Each structure stands twice: as C-alpha cells, then as structure tokens.
Amino acid sequence: MGQNLQSQDWPYLSRYKEENLRLQNEPKTTNRVVFIGDSITEFWSKEQADFFSNKNYVNRGISGQTSPQILLRFRADVVLLQPKVVIILAGGNDIAGNTGESSLEMILNNIQSMIEIAKANHLSIVLCSLLPANFFYWMPKKQPAKTIIAFNQLLRECANRNNLPFVDYYTALVDDNLGLPPKFSEDGVHPNANGYRIMQPLIEEVVNKLITIA
User: Hey, is 97 helix, strand or coil?
Assistant: First the structure.
C-alpha cells in the first residue's frame, strides 16, 4: 500500500513499452538483433552510438537489473519484437546482490529459462560471458572476481549444452588483477568506448554468421 505504479514495476516493463510498440508496428525486418541485459548493454548505445546506428540492432539493456528482472521482461522486450537473434548478457548484478543474494545456480536457471523461451520462438541465441570485475563500487564489501570466473565457466557449459555460440568478452578485457583495467573502464565495471570497441568485433563475428544462415 502507498507505492506508486512505477515503484511496483519491478522488471521495469514500462521502460521500453512505447519503443516496443513502435517497432512492432513497423514493417517486419528479417535481420533484427536484440541485445538484452543490464547497464553493460544499456550504456553501449551511449559509449559507442555508431554501433547501434544500424536500425536492425535494438538495445534493451536496463541499468542495475538482475537476471530475474530480465527474464520477466524477456517476452515484451525480445520475443514480441520478432528478432532473428537475441544477445543475452546477464548475471553481474545478481553477483552484486542488487535484488538479494542469489546462488550461481539460481542465476543460471534464469538464463536457461530465457534460452528456452527464445528457442520456443525460433530465435537464434548468443550467450555472452560476464565482464571482469574485482570490485563493485556500489557494493564495496563484495569480492566478485573469482565468482565471475566460476559463473563464466557455467555459462560456457550452458552454451555448449544448448548448442549456442558463446562470446568471451572476459578474456579479451581482463587484466592481471582479474579486473577491468583503466584503459577499458573508468569505474572498473562499465566499459568505456575503448572497452566496447574490443567487444564489438567479438559479437559482430557471431551475429554476422547467424544472420547469413537461411
């Protein structure tokens, strides 16, 4: 009682509601690619706007979100847009504990559910590793580095079980301290333009292959 409607929108379904309706009313494209995730995805459009200038690339990242929130909006923000490919990058904020403590199994279960929804709707799926981080500035007591390594291994195994491409951003970005170095990030968590420029060819190589499959 007493909460406003926005505070009750836990998965933040209102965030892209109008944009989604606009896309659904446009002539259908055969090569739409939806990127779904948290701030790592959301900020990509700001730091490297030219990457998303391709009208077939749709950014559906929301800063701070955890995998259960992303799962709850997966149909509205992915399936109903009828993409050919969905890029899933999620789990970092779960490790931070943004919506409460979660085991790695719980996070993986949410991602597996996204995979199953995407498969049921005949979408091509790309699973991405978490980026390195040895410190969360908003959760300074956390020591995430080794947890991220362990979860990325689970993600890779999940991709293999589901016969999905796995994009390893982690290896391309990590430094000797198991973190995201200053040349790629100002805060040790979110990539800057240089970091996204490292990520871009890794994801594009996989996407381009999926797009060309009849």
Answer: coil
